[in-house]
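To the wet lab folks,

You asked to see what we're planning to order before we commit. Fair enough. Below is the target structure as tokens, and below that is the sequence we designed to fit it. If anything looks off to you, flag it before the synthesis order goes out.
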């Protein structure tokens, strides 16, 4: 019987890597395996560009020490100047700063730095080994880590310097009862313990009027202490003076009055009044690991503490940066007058179920708390957070494993847990927030094969222009600290995962240690002439113009994923990016770009078939010529793509790889214009004869060393044997 001929066309081979599908259920347009490809929204697939140092890159003034921690963050709205953004680079115990408005970015290192070692506290693990977290508010930068006392940095625009504060003093009201509150509805007689005395004072029986009332009552009651069921001022007579008898006549029930008269240092609670120490000093031995600016305040959390591990401190609405540690109610809650909690006050929120809080994130009108064992949402009422009214909800039981993997995608969080990659979505019916696992149905097997150390060392960034998340992490078993030679990309437009691998240089061992996305827009201070009222320049007696430093908006930089690289030869930091058209990482290291398409059964699972022809569609990439008439001409950015096939579920290639980039016409070199390639077609179409047969087939597309490719799609002509 004659064979049946049909065809298959694929023009959107951009669904990315899928590992969670069987051979018989593999989705179309996805890849079984791939590496070092870039998936585009127009449906094309191309080689990623090579890592190349930025033009005119310079080394940092500081060295890179392998044993020390390395991290980066962004300080936005520096000194309240819109568009002025600094890159903050942590190398061990020192912070360095770069202006992100001008290229080359590596040449914009500021002259100042901050040593964070002086902010270490007793028992600290050492600031050189713990990553910082930062947040920007009112033009200042708040810095925290588990190894230092939090502090803030201010930038002085007039002389291009910074000032570093002392450690932030955190103050909270003492709302904790120190004694046995089950006995406080009765009069304490006999020998009154200090805890009872302190709780009495902290309930308002203190100060000029409160102490006088307690003394009066105690004198009338054999030196005993009053029940804490109603405040002292409830016993005032018609003259406004405290009367012990009137106070005794009031039935207070068994509910205790409020406390919190005293404002204490949160990390060093000294309970002293009138020169008397009532309780031994209570010391909190850990420090905040995460911080976020939200609703005009600063939120802090992440204490490694059995007692305070679930607590989130928030400052008052700040008018001055010096107020970022005022985490308490301004009015005395035990006062006779003006005891109300104000909407603008600071305070403390306790999430006792949260274990190992690692990240705070602002999402709309709420702040999300990411702990090891889940996610909580603290939301304001009517889209406004107030100290007087907010709600707390448990969003997810899936927590975060490494805060460096956290990425803010336009307000939407993405993070790595112990079991996968997650995000939060909003239920369209209820409006509630719920967790979604992004890997469980896509690349879970791939993700599971990343070892624990690599996941711990992973760091993520978000390309706001192209809406791509890139997670950088080391290869399994990597022994060099901070080295990151693997990249996992999630394209938010395509909802596709795909991996990259950075090749090691053959001549040296430079490697990526971090990454940040730079928008390319910013500001910087430039010198401008001082003008008279008539518009003329102010001129000194020696003829020089009078100039002043002014902030200017700049847009002379490109948006880029900037890579922080350790230059081994100099032991310094340099900056690079994915821009090389030599398609050799570091200029000499080959990397393979490939993609293996899914299984093609050509309509049935039983009959064997062949694919006599495969037609590929590629976009020309050549941009011109290099060379001369004497030495010959070589195309610039030449393409090449090799195609091979797997038949019948084989793990090894069944056919010899064939070159698919075959130009139909011979380009003519114009010696007067080597920047033009002069190829007449916008597409290179090639028909290949595919050897082999079987019940299924799948194709592999692979790069050639040093050459580009842009795959637009392909077609297969299939021949099916109709004989049963």
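Sequence we intend to order:
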């Amino acid at each position: 019987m004659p064979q049946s001929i049909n065809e298959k066309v694929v023009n959107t081979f951009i669904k990315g890597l899928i590992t969670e599908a069987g051979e018989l259920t593999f989705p179309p347009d996805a890849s079984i395996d791939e590496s070092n490809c870039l998936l585009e929204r127009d449906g094309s697939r191309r080689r990623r560009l090579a890592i190349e140092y930025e033009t005119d890159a310079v080394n940092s003034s500081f060295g890179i020490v392998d044993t020390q921690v390395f991290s980066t963050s962004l300080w936005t709205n520096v000194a309240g100047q819109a568009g002025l953004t600094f890159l903050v680079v942590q190398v061990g115990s020192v912070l360095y700063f770069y202006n992100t408005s001008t290229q080359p970015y590596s040449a914009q290192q500021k002259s100042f730095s901050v040593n964070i070692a002086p902010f270490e506290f007793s028992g600290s693990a050492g600031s050189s080994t713990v990553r910082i977290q930062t947040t920007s508010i009112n033009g200042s930068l708040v810095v925290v880590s588990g190894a230092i006392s939090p502090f803030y940095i201010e930038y002085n625009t007039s002389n291009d310097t910074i000032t570093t504060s002392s450690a932030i003093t955190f103050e909270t009201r003492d709302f904790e009862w120190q004694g046995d509150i089950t006995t406080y509805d009765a009069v304490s007689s006999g020998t009154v313990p200090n805890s009872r005395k302190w709780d009495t004072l902290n309930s308002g029986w203190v100060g000029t009027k409160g102490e006088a009332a307690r003394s009066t009552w105690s004198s009338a009651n054999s030196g005993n202490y009053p029940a804490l069921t109603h405040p002292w001022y409830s016993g005032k007579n018609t003259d406004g003076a405290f009367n012990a008898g009137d106070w005794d006549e009031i039935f207070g029930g068994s509910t205790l009055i409020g406390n919190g008269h005293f404002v204490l240092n949160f990390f060093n609670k000294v309970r002293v009044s009138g020169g008397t120490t009532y309780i031994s000093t209570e010391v909190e031995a850990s420090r905040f690991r995460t911080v976020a600016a939200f609703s005009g305040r600063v939120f802090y959390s992440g204490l490694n503490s059995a007692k305070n591990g679930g607590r989130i401190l928030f400052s008052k609405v700040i008018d001055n940066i010096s107020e970022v540690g005022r985490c308490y109610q301004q009015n005395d809650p035990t006062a006779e007058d003006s005891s109300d909690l104000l909407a603008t006050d600071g305070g403390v929120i306790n999430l006792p179920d949260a274990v190992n809080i690692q990240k705070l994130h602002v999402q709309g009108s709420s702040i999300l708390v990411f702990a090891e064992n889940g996610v909580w949402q603290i939301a304001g009422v009517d889209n406004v957070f107030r100290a007087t009214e907010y709600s707390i909800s448990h969003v997810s039981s899936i927590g975060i494993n490494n805060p460096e993997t956290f990425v803010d995608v336009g307000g939407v969080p993405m993070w790595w847990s112990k079991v996968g990659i997650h995000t939060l979505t909003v239920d369209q019916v209820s409006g509630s927030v719920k967790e979604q696992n992004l890997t469980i149905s896509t690349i879970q097997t791939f993700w599971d094969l990343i070892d624990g150390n690599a996941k711990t060392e992973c760091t993520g960034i978000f390309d706001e222009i192209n809406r791509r998340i890139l997670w950088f992490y080391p290869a399994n078993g990597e022994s060099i600290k901070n080295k990151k030679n693997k990249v996992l990309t999630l394209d938010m437009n395509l909802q596709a995962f795909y991996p990259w691998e950075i090749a090691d240089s053959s001549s040296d061992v430079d490697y990526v240690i971090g990454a940040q996305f730079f928008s390319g827009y910013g500001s910087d201070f430039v010198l401008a002439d001082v003008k008279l009222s008539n518009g003329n320049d102010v001129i000194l007696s020696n003829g020089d113009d009078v100039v002043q430093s002014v902030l200017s908006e700049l847009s002379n930089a490109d948006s880029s994923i900037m890579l922080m690289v350790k230059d081994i030869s100099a032991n310094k930091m340099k900056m690079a990016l994915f821009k090389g058209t030599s398609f050799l990482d570091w200029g000499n290291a080959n990397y393979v770009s490939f993609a293996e398409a899914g299984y093609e059964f050509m309509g049935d699972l039983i009959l064997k078939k062949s694919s006599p022809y495969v037609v590929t569609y590629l976009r020309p990439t050549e941009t011109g010529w290099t060379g001369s008439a004497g030495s010959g001409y070589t195309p610039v950015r030449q393409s090449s793509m090799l195609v091979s096939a797997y038949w019948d579920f084989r793990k090894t290639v069944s056919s010899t790889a064939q070159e698919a980039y075959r130009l139909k016409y011979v380009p003519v070199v114009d010696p007067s214009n080597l920047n033009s390639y002069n190829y007449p077609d916008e597409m290179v179409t090639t028909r290949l004869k595919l050897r082999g047969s079987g019940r299924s087939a799948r194709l592999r597309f692979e790069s050639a060393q040093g050459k580009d490719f842009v795959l637009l799609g392909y077609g297969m002509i299939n021949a099916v044997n109709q004989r049963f």
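Structural context that might help your review: Residues 207-220 form the longest helix (14 residues). The radius of gyration is 34 Å.

Thanks,
Computational group
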